[in-house]
Design goal:
mainly alpha; 2 domains; about 675 residues; Helix Hairpins
Length: about 675
């Protein structure tokens, strides 16, 4: 890492040297700013808690009033004016809760620590039970002790939230004011309990031992918290307390206290009633509430001032830190530029001197620091470089004169060399030209021979292909003729079978005709029988008519027999008609089968003639195929000979091309030699 720093340019090293203290300043400033930010955040939290304290105090004040009213209501048995007062107190508490409870429910208690969150959660949970205790109070289903315990516990949870202000405060003034404010809240809480205990005792015209002990204890606790208040409160708050808690109401309460304390457990015969006690101490509590409001405003004002001071301190710290960093950065930049810029100028001048610009102007030679020493050293380098440049020019002039003399002698030698070698190159060029012409003629002749051989080869190949095509076609024709022969043979066999089948069918038709004739004879016989039966039935009918009543049954039977005979004659006539048509169709079919048999005989004769002709054609086709194969073989021999000629022509052409290529290469070599000699002569002349 150190090697990298040492190899860096001066600007980067100056930057690194400046950054280290600037970073240190920045870290220190960040530490200071972080502390101020934390202080401001703490005061902001404290200010918020101080601002919420009066809201909680107002809820506590109403709950304290509701606790005292409920206790007095229970001790009086729910009679008289206490019913109205209880409803009024409930309404007053509800009005305050309606205004403040949503704020408490939405308050971000988790941002202020676990203590605030837990106590606010418990207080809200107790407030949700408020309506249930009210119902039990109205219906006299609870005791004074249970009611006092519920309200006291709820009030305690709310007061504990306010007590967190004192524990979180870092500022001594705010801590003292918060302790004094909390002492007032505790005094008022004990006064509220004292109000309930006194109302119970004065309502019963006597204090029991537990109530009296609690009553006296509460008075002592108020005195203790008053001492704390006077120790921590500001002189203004103490003076305001002394000015506020004076008058007849305060004196009356003190007098009634003394009566209760001195009476002990005895009966109270004074004319003080529970209502008088309740109203009197309530007015005193209201006066304490005024002092409480004064103390809360004083605490909030102090918190506002501390918050504003913290904000101003944060801004001043932030501005001073930024200013310090800006001044340090500007100083580093100015000092760095005062070093790097002249060095950069010297670097540019030294680069120009190194490139040969010895007329450059050098700035900074009049400085009295190290940069001035460097500038004056660069002037020395510039002057020495100018002297060396002049010496170099003189040496170049002398070398030029010697080179001119050498060039003249070389030019003469080059002219002689060019003249002698040029003649030999001209003879070589002429010989290569003649050789190239001869080789080109051979190449053209070989090409012509090759082309003719290719033409003959192509023609021979075409003839061979045609003959092979004819042979193939003849072979295919022979195969086709064979198939035709087979089909004709099969056709002859089928024709013979058809002829035999037609002859057999003709015989069957004749037999069918004879059977039809016999059926006709039978039908004629049945017709005659039916006519005889009809005649007999007619005679029977006549005889039955002659017989009268005795022959009626026989007449009916004779009539039915007559009907059957008529139906038989009719059916026999229809059958006879069908048999006649069958005989006619059978005769026609027999004649047709005879014609078919004759045609089949003629087809058989034609098929035999075609079969003989096909056999002759098959022999001729086989002869054609054999001749075509012999011709194809001869053409293949011719094609092979032509290929040999073409190969020889190609080899001749290749040899001619090689001779031509050699002649051209010889010409190129001669030209190259001429060019090399020319270049050599030119180089000699240019030397």
């Amino acid at each position: 890492m150190l090697g990298g720093i040492f190899n860096a340019n001066i600007g980067k090293r100056i930057f690194i040297a400046a950054v280290v203290p600037i970073v240190g300043i920045a870290l220190f400033a960040a530490y200071i700013i972080s502390g101020e930010v934390q202080r401001y955040a703490s005061l902001n939290h404290l200010h918020t808690l101080a601002s919420i304290s009066p809201k909680i105090s107002s809820v506590v004040n109403e709950l304290q009033g509701e606790r005292g009213t409920s206790a007095t209501y229970i001790s009086s048995g729910g009679n008289g004016v206490w019913t109205t007062r209880l409803d009024q107190q409930f309404a007053s508490t509800d009005a305050v809760l309606t205004d403040i409870l949503p704020y408490l429910q939405e308050f971000p208690a988790a941002d202020y620590g676990v203590q605030v969150e837990e106590r606010l959660t418990l207080a809200l949970a107790e407030l949700e039970r408020l309506e249930g205790f009210r119902d039990r109070t109205r219906s006299a289903r609870t005791t004074i002790e249970a009611t006092a315990e519920y309200y006291t516990q709820t009030i305690r949870q709310l007061l504990d939230i306010v007590s967190v202000v004192a524990s979180l405060a870092d500022d001594a003034e705010i801590k003292g004011q918060s302790i004094a404010y909390m002492s007032l809240l505790e005094i008022k809480e004990r006064a509220g309990l004292e109000r309930a205990m006194g109302a119970k005792g004065y309502g019963a015209k006597a204090f029991d031992s537990l109530t009296h002990t609690e009553f006296v204890t509460l008075i002592g606790q108020q005195d203790s918290y008053m001492e704390v208040f006077r120790a921590y409160a500001s002189p203004e708050a103490v003076a305001f307390y002394d000015e506020t808690l004076v008058g007849t109401q305060v004196d009356d309460v003190e007098y009634w206290r003394d009566i209760a304390v001195e009476a002990g457990y005895d009966m109270l015969y004074d004319e003080v009633t529970d209502i008088q006690w309740y109203d009197g101490i309530s007015m005193k509590i209201d006066l304490i509430t005024q002092v409480e409001d004064f103390a809360s405003k004083e605490m909030i004002a102090t918190a506002d001032g501390a918050l504003s001071s913290a904000w101003m301190a944060l801004l001043i710290t932030l501005a001073s830190s930024i200013g310090s960093l800006a001044v340090a950065g500007a100083a580093c930049y100015i000092v760095g530029r005062s070093i790097t810029k002249p060095l950069a100028n010297l670097q540019d001048v030294m680069g120009e001197v190194a490139d040969g610009a010895f007329d450059v102007q050098i700035s900074g030679a009049d400085r009295r620091d190290e940069i001035g020493d460097m500038a004056r050293a660069v002037e020395v380098f510039r002057d020495q470089g100018a002297a060396a440049e002049r010496l170099k020019e003189e040496q170049e002039l002398a070398e030029k004169r010697a080179a001119d003399e050498k060039r003249e002698s070389l030019n003469k030698m080059a002219d002689d060399l060019e003249s002698s070698i040029g003649q030999m190159i001209d003879g070589l060029t002429a010989s290569s030209t003649e050789l190239e012409t001869t080789a080109r003629s051979m190449s053209e002749l070989a090409g012509t021979t090759n082309e003719e051989a290719i033409s003959v080869s192509n023609a021979s190949t075409g003839a061979t292909q045609n003959v092979e095509t004819v042979a193939s076609a003849a072979t295919q024709l022979s195969n086709a003729i064979g198939e035709v022969t087979e089909q004709i043979s099969l056709s002859a066999a089928l024709t013979q079978e058809s002829r035999e089948a037609s002859e057999q069918t003709d015989v069957q038709m004749k037999n069918l005709s004879e059977a039809a004739n016999r059926i006709g004879s039978v039908m004629e016989l049945i017709q005659e029988i039916a006519e005889q039966t009809n005649l007999l039935a007619l005679n029977a009918t006549i005889e039955a008519a002659r017989a009268g009543e005795a022959g009626k049954g026989f007449a009916v039977v004779a009539s039915e027999v007559k009907d059957l005979a008529n139906q038989t004659a009719k059916a026999t006539g229809e059958i006879s008609d069908h048999v006649n048509r069958v005989q006619e169709e059978t005769k026609t079919a027999a004649e047709a089968m005879t014609g078919i048999a004759n045609k089949i005989g003629e087809i058989n004769q034609v098929t035999s003639a075609v079969s003989a002709a096909v056999e002759e054609q098959s022999s001729a086709t086989q002869e054609i195929s054999r001749s075509a194969e012999e011709t194809a073989e001869m053409n293949r021999n011719v094609s092979s000979s032509v290929d040999t000629v073409r190969t020889a022509a190609e080899q001749t052409g290749t040899a001619a091309d090689q001779v031509l290529s050699s002649a051209e290469e010889l010409s190129k070599t001669a030209e190259g030699l001429r060019k090399q000699v020319g270049d050599f002569v030119s180089s000699i002349r240019a030397a």
